[in-house]
Amino acid sequence: MKNEKRILNIISIIMVVTVFIILPQLMRLNDGNATIMGEEPYYHALAAESIGGKSSIQREPPLSSDEYIHITPYHLLIAGTSNITGMDFALRMIPLICGIFSGVLFFLILKRLGLNDFISKASVVLLASAPVFVFSFIATQDSFAIVLSLAGAYFFLKNKRFGVILSALFFGLASMFSLFNMLLIIVSLLAFSFSQKKMQRRSMFLMMISLIAYSINPGPIFYNLFMLSPNALKQAISDIGGILGIGIFYAILALIGFALTWKDIGKYKAVYAVLAFFAAGFYFAGSHILMYANFIIAFLAAVALERLNQRKWDMQMIKNFTFFIIACGILFSFISYSARISLMPPNQEIEEGLIWLGDNSREDSIVASHYSNGYYIEYYSRLEALIDSSMLHHERPESVFLDAYDLFHATEMGRARAIIERYDIKYIMITDDMVRGDVWQEDGEGLLRLLDNKEVFSMAYDSDEIEVWRYIEPLSQ
Q1: Which value, to the nearest 10 degrees, does the dihedral of the CA atoms of residues 220, 224, 225, 227 take?
Q2: Which of 247-251, 263-267, 308-312, 443-447 has the highest average model confidence (pLDDT)?
């Protein structure tokens, strides 16, 4: 009977997590957009292709970005899976499967720690409904790092020799993603070992494994491809525009749970130690840290829900109404967020335009566009992008970014031509987002006005969402 209940719980978790993760993608498909959302999956596809030397893009200085690609276990998994299933299927299914396993492992860990059914189940539902969870398991490689860390924690708690071996394997792989991932494992093990003295030797062994694994494949402080927002707190709340954020109702519940557990801080000192580490990590990674902190936030929110459920209510109707309002608030945050991210680029027109460009241009052509379009250009057209998001955190290509800015805002043809010829740019790709604020604020601003010169530029491709202009080289060349 106990096993049947456990299996039923796991099946329920799988269904709940799957629904939350795939809903934004179903909304996207319903709008006629079958592309994978966001920039990051395309970067990982290119990184995976580079492992086997399959990438058709061969960069030369000053555009070379090979040194900016940090190969992680996620890229190895994508590369291996895509050889069997194709890249598109691998990019979609691996994060989803990681999300499902993360939900199940989180539930099993909470049960192993002795938490009751209400908190364990509520934690998983709250976790999966959080916008940051949905995005983590749609478009980021952190999906694999998270499930590896959870698997390591689960087998660490099994208190068996084989469990320690598996824990070492999973923690070691997770440590290869970044310094943050390695430190998260070490801090968690330290915090747990102080509260569980009998686990100290095992914890020390696993910490050594994590250090060794990281030294084999040292990565950045935190694996973040994109520019941090100047307003990290705003980005942490999905209801006011944050992509990697949580809803307001969810945040309020977590704060209540924080206050409730603080009264018994001795019991939860390991949780607070890890929470303090996340708070410090927020300085380096901004709202990206919520992909990991979300698990503790979900637990704290579940504690608040349990307290509300256990308290004595004068009227059952008031209790039911309170829970109804909370559920509606959380679901509203999730649905509005899902509708918003379902509209993220790229779209079908960008995909079709770039595939056309790749089929109708020389392989060594360089395409200038906004840096956020770089991975789309390289993935769909197999051509070189002048700039992409991976260059944002490196000093050497700063001049390339400045030149790209000068090109887009050039008011004199001589200046525009000098930059184009310096980098041997063949095409300029302009998207609707670039015209509406990503690059220009007004029609006819900067390069947009210069493109009217038919002796220098010609329209190569045109649709509602994308224009591709060909640079006409002077006859003297």
Answers
A1: -120
A2: 247-251
Eight-class DSSP state of 440: -
DSSP letter, residue 365: -
84: Cβ–Cβ under 8 A, 6 or more apart, which residues?
Answer: none
Query: Is pLDDT at 330 greater than 70 in this prediction?
Result: yes
Inter-CA distances, 149 with 100, 142, 179, 246, 283, Å: 14, 10, 14, 21, 22
| Measured distance CA(277)–CA(376) in Å, rounded | 35
In the numeric block, the tokens 């796991």 are attached to 10
Residue with tokens 């790749």: 358
Q: Which CATH class name applies to 348-471?
A: alpha beta
Provide φ and ψ at 430, rounded to 5°: -125, 125
pLDDT score recorded for residue 222 = 79
Which residue from 150, 53, 126, 45 is spatially nearest to 89, judged by alpha carbons? 45
As a whole number of angstroms, the distance between CA 421 and CA 148 comes to 47
CA atoms within 13 A on the CB side of 402: 6
The rounded distance, in Å, linking the Cα atoms of 250 and 23 is 19
Structural domain boundaries in the chain: 2-35+70-341, 348-471
Torsion-angle region of residue 472: left (phi > 0), alpha (psi -120 to 50) or beta? beta
- If pLDDT is split at 50, 70 and 90, which confidence band does 442 have? confident
**What distance in Å separates the CA atoms of residue 188 and residue 181, rounded to the nearest whole number?**
11
Strands (E), 264-375: 366-368
Handedness of CA 105, 289, 204, 172 (dihedral sign): positive
Contact 103, 13 (CB under 8 A): yes
HSE (side-chain half, CA atoms, 13 Å) at 177: 29
Pairing mode of beta strands 425-431, 366-368: parallel
Q: Indicate yes or no: pTM above 0.85.
A: yes
3-state secondary structure of 97: helix
